[in-house]
Amino acid sequence: MDEVVEAEPDPEAEDQEERWARLLPELLSDVVQRVEASGGERWPARKDVVSCACVCRRWRESAVAVVRPPAESGKITFPSSLKQPGPRESPMQCFIKRNKKNSTFYLYLGFTSSPVDKGKFLMAARRFRRGPHTEYIMSLDSEDLSQGSNAYMGKLRSDFWGTNFKIYDSKPPYDGAKASSSRSSRRFGSRRISPQVSAGNYEVGQVSYKYNLLKSRGPRRMYCTLECPSAQETWENSLKTKFRRPLGPTTLRNKAPRWHEHLQCWCLNFHGRVTVASVKNFQLVAAADPSDPTSSVDDETVLLQFGKVADDMFTMDYRQPLSAFQAFAISLSSFGTKLACE
């Protein structure tokens, strides 16, 4: 058996890293702020901000303190941004590309309002059949879509009928959360900006489709219950906080479409973001708490909309309190056959 020999550290590389780390905090912060302000508002130029965070630990901490979370900035910068709430005023515009041959779905951040632009890759998901269930494994790596990967983000799991889904996060949504799987020994890779924490499968949401056993005419109905991240936490606190409390579930329902007599179909106003009629198209709004008759919600503001624009192209726009990860998981539930809903 060949002996495994560890590579000797490179003194020159270590000296170079130490030299960068010795910059005065004020100077370091100024450098990162200048990079942030010098045309790095959008991708691909935004990669310069990420490069700053990759220099060393002190540069990473400085970048974390300077860059604001998506809820405040409306920008996705680090992988951690994908599990942070989106902006409140205007939705984050994304699109999903589907590859039917390998049952893989790719999520991109749109550079423009057009769904045909190249976009910035965010994450991918692949559909697997596991006995009577279907699972969608979500990953930061478009090539490595397995639960054992360092890039594993979470998964979506359906029941036999394809009408009830559970969303699992790879990291606990709050302190004390119990993993739904015993396979929690994996750890996030060092490529991530967020600290290393134990990775498992923590249930953070459910998606259900209303049964339509009588095959009655009309669109399928959809309900979601989610553990949404707090929009009050700053970017820095969300990465370093040692105590996070459960915030309680957020409930969403699909916005009911209207029947168009002239077109003879059900219609929703997607404001030009959806161009192809499909049973998969939907808009989600806040739903009132059934246990509290006095509660009131804004049931007009669309928090997530998903719809078809080409054979294998779909737009996905989301806003606070949803994160990109949650929006992607909900959108994935729309694919596939709903045996009791179609």
Automatic annotation (TrEMBL):
Highest taxon, organism lineage: Eukaryota
InterPro entries registered for this protein in UniProt: Tubby-like_C (IPR025659), Tubby_C (IPR000007), Tubby_C_CS (IPR018066)
Domain Tubby C-terminal: 82-337
Pfam family, one: Tub
Gene3D superfamilies (alphabetical): Tubby Protein, Chain A (3.20.90.10)
PANTHER family per record: TUBBY-LIKE F-BOX PROTEIN 1, TUBBY-RELATED
Similarity-based family: Belongs to the TUB family.
Protein name, entry field: Tubby-like F-box protein
Source organism of the structure: Miscanthus lutarioriparius
